[in-house]
Amino acid sequence: MKVLVVGSGGREHAICRAVAKSSRVDKIYCAPGNAGIAALAECVPIGAMEFDKLVSFAKDNAIDFTIIGMDDPLVGGIVDEFEKAGLKCFGPKKNAAILEGSKAFSKDLMKKYNIPTAAYENFTDAKEALKYLETAKFPIVLKADGLALGKGVLICNTLEEAKEGVRTIMEDKKFGTAGNTMVVEEFMTGREVSVLSFVDGKTIKIMSSAQDHKRAGDGDTGLNTGGMGNFSPSPFYTNEVDDFCKKYIYQATVDAMAKEGRPFTGVIFFGLMLTEDGPKVLEYNARFGDPEAQVVLPRMKNDIIDVMEACVDGTLDTIDLQFEDNACVCVVLASDGYPVKYEKGFKITGFEKFDGKEDYYCYHAGTKFDADGNIVTNGGRVLGITATGATLKEARAKAYEATEWVQFDNKYMRHDIGKAIDEA
What we know:
CATH architecture of the largest domain: 2-Layer Sandwich
CATH class of the largest domain: Alpha Beta
Distance between the termini: 44 Å
Number of helices: 13
Mean pLDDT: 95
Shape: globular
CATH superfamily of the largest domain: ATP-grasp fold, B domain
CATH topology of the largest domain: D-amino Acid Aminotransferase, Chain A, domain 1
Helix content: 25-40%
Strand content: 25-35%
């Protein structure tokens, strides 16, 4: 098979690595890819939102299967364009990707179908939002409705902070049109857990749990980011939690989307909060998480092409999804100053230290080749240093050991990824 992966980050690197393991695949392309992906796939200089060019490339190169990694093209309807051209494509259609594309839609869906989530109100008028906040309990959460690179969520501890948040989202449009509608949500407390799933429109198969670290600084301080590290499985995702979620959240979401005439095919990411009142949905994503993919996919035993094809063909019920009985930890090496302001273009050294080491992997998120052929930094999140081990503690120790192997100016990371493991 010839496979095309669309995207350019650490998630797409993890997908390409999983695809490269498939005995059914002999050629991988990635558009646009990055310097690390180039070792596994032929990178094609086409942007993820250039739908016509991507469809033409897939036709001209007889691509058998296309995998969409990123949220923007999914919400924009790229799968619809590929299917119109008679091409097989993994991911939800536009009318289903709204599950991530609009937080207001997803909150209303959960309310309608009694899927456990935080109490909320949606606003399209800043004055109405401010009026509501005068009577609200704090802390409270403000969310830009649309896509905001994982950064459109503000936790406000006081009325003054909330008023400033409304200005930021709805008036100053810090997150662009994503802030045309804003969700105001009750603040939930508990452990956060990420659960990825494969879906074929009617059947859902749950992957292993993971746990993200969204804040930029140690101790969960600083601004929200796209994710500073991850581990899998989460010790807090117990059999009891799994049973509850299967009964009231996972299949209920798939059935709700089907009833709304929006059957979902691809990956649903469930962001969960394990509250005192039981698990509740924080958010949905319509694709693999980043860096969740980097810790979950290395543990999957199945051929990823078999699973993804079953999703597209509607035969997921025939797949026995299995994961290794081990653990995986990913520590993100970022550019100092992320997620606000940072410099790029610094040479990265030390990649050779990963050669021949099965338990370690270096996923590229924001890298590129410079004019001299050196790999240099090209983003806020640069690399995902990942390691597997028999236990979470072992995987964590190995991942942090490997963070010392790679060096670049402006290197920044959190030092407490998976620290909760030690407290479990």
